[in-house]
């Protein structure tokens, strides 16, 4: 009895102490507010070793005191420049390169720009990211789509310095120790590919590493992920690209891709290694061919903190775009349930979109609605035409979205109907391309969209890179009309429609979502990424658009706003993780503190405070 009383008393004291600590922590948090402190960095190298370390190197911006302290005196030109002067110098070079390559082949110019950016990245990370953030609209098409596609195609020739990690079929059984070769003690974000479907360019084998690098550049620029804590990963299981296999200079394994169990066990081994060394990391799967993309997502999504950007990020961006298009028609978002949507391409991207949008419709009209039970809103077209239940050897992932025979015979269509026939009969509100077939929306298909009874049909050729876009912006405005809403996966210029009118071009790319999903998952410490968190992200993206922009046909925010938008998306993701009780906290911020922040509406400030910004910190030498 006495023992029980003592134990109860002990528990009460511990509880009181805990609560006091919590209050103290809470008080400190409020007191410190959202003040951001640039902490000094501890370096254990000196002199030229610092100049050759892109993380610490400041080039001509090293102040004299630091040059003295770190053995850099005499190692640099004498004038100390500010970071703004360094930016001016780089941008002057960049613009002169632009002028000099303007009249030559576009691809040569694009690669030249990528090269000077990449060299800066290798020399001075802080300056590289500052320039990238300040000029994101101009530079995203170089570090990301479309130029990153060209870079991957030519990677064996462009490769100078390694970036990220390579795990290959030859490393079986070794990955657990290999991951410890990575120098960072902490990694927040991994983007991994097996190179099997790089943008719409197909199997590029080991050269696909360019994609994780480009995506992580956006994580740093848009989400403020700390560049010292991101890790691009390439898993080389071989390639089925004969041109690469025939190229003696190809840098990957010269063997056909592993398949079946052998393939799966390699990816399993990598995941186990990654989460063993970095238990809090988030892994984004990128550009895996569809047959593996779905299987791997199913396999890992509740076990690890991971998501597949092509399936889930793309779906969210497509949903936000369609919600924007609905509002541009002057209708409420809930009218998404009435939209007729033709999705061309039934791979990871197309199927991800249909699945997610059906969930969104269910959220709007309720699960039991016939619109949700049948596939009323969606017509899926792949390389063999309209996908129906009569399709032989139907891809199991596509089966649930196949149109019923009853339904299509009523509308005068049949299994495998051509795209143009589908458009003529369905008269869709939305025509979305995720086929990786450039020019698939021919003049005939686009003209058929004129039959749409929608006041503002949406034409969304979302395939990447530019050469794979189903149509150009100019073609869409020319053949469908000036009233359309247009978004493409890779950027196009706005279109001059004459009489002072402009056809607005949006970039419908998962770059608007994945940084916010990753950041929200990280800062909430969600133990897995739920559908609800993905919907919260997409709905947040849709909601940031104001009526005036939507009326002009602008359905996504301007790219220079991407950092602010990403912070808001992360906020939405964290709030949802808290509501769903999957948020386990991040570093010293425990779930209780997250909840308190949600209550006093300070999650956004918490996100912003945790976003890394490129600023030179003073360097302190420690041997
Ligand atoms: N804008 C964005 O944010 C994103 C765009 N994408 C793009 O989506 C494209 C597709 O990606 P995945 O689904 O992973 O590729 P995938 O290769 O798995 O799927 C392609 C689909 O297109 C279909 N297709 C091929 N030729 C066709 C034709 N002539 N007519 C109709 N359908 C045809 C195929 O049957 C297949 O279903 C890529 O170009 C990729 O860059 C992917 C993710 C995000
Ligand atoms: C944007 C992207 O993720 C893709 O085209 O695959
Ligand atoms: Mg992708």
UniProtKB/TrEMBL annotation:
It is found in: Mitochondrion. A divalent metal cation binds at residues 286-287, 310. Coiled coil: none annotated. GO terms for biological process: malate metabolic process. It catalyses: (S)-malate + NAD(+) = pyruvate + CO2 + NADH. Belongs to the malic enzymes family. Residues 121-301 form the Malic enzyme N-terminal domain. This is Malic enzyme. GO terms for cellular component: mitochondrion. SUPFAM superfamilies: Aminoacid dehydrogenase-like, N-terminal domain, NAD(P)-binding Rossmann-fold domains. (S)-malate binds at residues 197, 464, 509. It comes from Marchantia polymorpha subsp. ruderalis. Keywords: Metal-binding, Mitochondrion, NAD, Oxidoreductase, Transit peptide. It holds the Pfam family malic. Residues 311-578 form the Malic enzyme NAD-binding domain. NCBIfam families: PRK13529.1 (NF010052). Transmembrane segments: none annotated. The lineage of its organism: Eukaryota, Viridiplantae, Streptophyta, Embryophyta, Marchantiophyta. Its cofactor is Mn(2+); Mg(2+). The active site is at residues 144, 215. Divalent metal cations. Prefers magnesium or manganese. The keyword Oxidoreductase applies.
